[in-house]
Amino acid sequence: MPGKRARRHFSQLSEFERGLIIGMKTAGWSTHRVAGQVDRSECAVRNCWEQWTREGTHTRKTGPGATRKTTRREDRRKVRQALVDPTVTRSTIRADVGVAIVPQTISRHLAEANLKFKHPFRTLPLTPEHWQLRLQWCQASSMWNITDWPKVVFSDESRFVWGTDDNRVRVWRHLGERYNFPHTFLRHTARTAGVMVWGHSL
């Protein structure tokens, strides 16, 4: 595949390929011939050979990475904000820190503290009356047979969003804290005619 071959042409050389290039160049092969043998660009072969002749090594140097724009103190401040207010947005955190960083950087820093931005678990504020009604329905339907269940309609809701923002509230939380307060939200349970929840109307 031409596209796949082009991507391989400019990807990083492996240690094995670097050793092959140096061996073939030491044997007197031309750069063009070596590039065709290892299926790499002539530029990659030339750079590998020049590094060997200049430094005596073919090991690829690793860069130090991008410079961190925030201090450790500012990073701790971001984590503290997410713990105090789990619903705080990345824009609010960035404005409070006062450093020009992209939202992905904030998410990455909070991920280092094992904090993920997740949808809150929504629960129904059930009253003792709800519990009793559900128990009665379960007891009444425990002996239903295959002809009774087709009369029950189970509904579900799906959400479709055209844009990038779904206007849903998210919370910062650690792994295993999905059902812990304040990471849970209450759902609306207003009584509506004709709406059935677990077999009884609300």
From TrEMBL:
Residue ranges of the TM segments: none
GO biological process: DNA integration; DNA transposition
InterPro entries named among the record's database cross-references: Homeodomain-like_sf, RNaseH_sf, Transposase_Tc1-like
GO molecular function annotation: DNA binding
Renumbered residue ranges of the record's region Disordered: 56-77
Pfam families documented for this protein: HTH_Tnp_Tc3_2
Residues covered by the Transposase Tc1-like domain: 76-139
Location(s) in or outside the cell: Nucleus
Signal peptide start and end residues: none
Cellular component terms (Gene Ontology): nucleus
Top-level lineage group: Eukaryota
Protein's recorded name: Transposable element Tcb1 transposase
Phylogenetic classification of the source organism: Eukaryota, Metazoa, Ecdysozoa, Arthropoda, Chelicerata
